[in-house]
Amino acid sequence: MKRVLSFFLAVMMFITVVPFVSAQSTFSDVPRNHWAYKEIQAMASKGIIKGYEDGKFRPNSLVTRAEFAKIMIAAAGVDIDKSKVSQTFQDVPKNHWAFYYVEYAKPYLTGYKSDTGNRYTYKPDQYAVREDIAVALVRLLGYDQKYQADLSVLKRFNDDNRVSPALRPYVALSIQTDLMKGSNNYYRPQDAITRAEAASLLFRALLDQKDDETKVVFPSPEKPNQELPTSVTDNFNSDDLKKWDTDKAIGTWEVVNNQVSAVTKDRKLEHFFLPLIWNEKANTDRFEMSVDVNADGTNGLGGLYFNGKNEKAHVVFFTKDRVILAKVDDVNDEDYDIIATSSYKLKSTNKLKIVVNKDNISIYINNQYLFGQQKLKLDGTELGLYLQKAATKDAPKKITTLDNFSFKLVR
């Protein structure tokens, strides 16, 4: 309950810029027939919402993303330690007024990542939009851990294609749990949030919740005491890619029809990596990994990578008539160093399996040994899925996809 109250207190920051000395129950610009009158007055009566010195609420004023970060800090009851914060976003330096709010509120916020995966921006002066609020409320209440997102609910709205791909599960959950609703068959995911809408959404999420002590679950992106897995399988039945470190991914990866692929808007980017979340501190020199590469209408150009470090990695992938083991040293360079190769006629579906035993690698295709390589220098622990830009250049008509992934350590 204490954290719920923290969120209420946070509402004051969210909907007040110049606070009045005391809370007031009515506002001259919020008449009784205002659509959010009930929500605004209910929160004002609890001393949570404060108006302006002129007695107005200014319900149509918009809220910036920087202001939204501040609200989420108060919501989570986070104590800020300014000595242990490094800069994540290029456009929120340490001298920005919202720097510490943004850094500490990241578990609840949306941000922007370049396709190369090495540059993040927050866009603090832009307005917070409805899909941002959906993410924050769903994660704050723990609904992303408690419920399974049903993406089909998005089809109720004529503008479902305007929902950002990575945010679709959260928006779906906001609809499923009645946290947020659309109007006239439109969800308006990219519409900026007004102060009145903020009051209404927070009222619905908190004051209207029953048994709120069991529903308010504060998310943690990483659980320090949780042991990371040493074996992972993924058939991509879920769109959220929870088993993958999408924050470190190179390229934009998405699940489509229970298969995963990647695209990019970066003209320079040539190689896509999707790193697996696994226990990299375990015995990492013996493991096996497999994936199905679906190349219907393409030349393949996809598979697996391992020994990843600093955007460099060994890769194993298909071409139209070969299987290649190579080293990628620059994700922006289409060239790669071929280490070994063997002839193979590409099929529509191709099962690739690699077995790493210290400095030796064995490569299997469709459960048959194809070739191997000895004395590879392995000093990186990152591994996962790999695609080349050319594998998806003709999307959506022709695209290489990956599915039926499996990984395990071998003792």
From TrEMBL:
Q: Does the keyword Chaperone apply?
A: no
Q: Which UniProt keywords apply?
A: Signal
One Pfam family recorded for the sequence: SLH
Alphabetized PROSITE patterns for the sequence: SLH
Domain SLH residue range list:
23-86, 87-151, 154-216
Q: Where is the signal peptide?
A: 1-23
Q: Which PANTHER family match?
A: OUTER MEMBRANE PROTEIN ALPHA-RELATED, S-LAYER PROTEIN _ PEPTIDOGLYCAN ENDO-BETA-N-ACETYLGLUCOSAMINIDASE
Query: Under which name does UniProt file this protein?
Result: S-layer homology domain-containing protein
Question: Species name for this entry?
Answer: Brevibacillus ruminantium
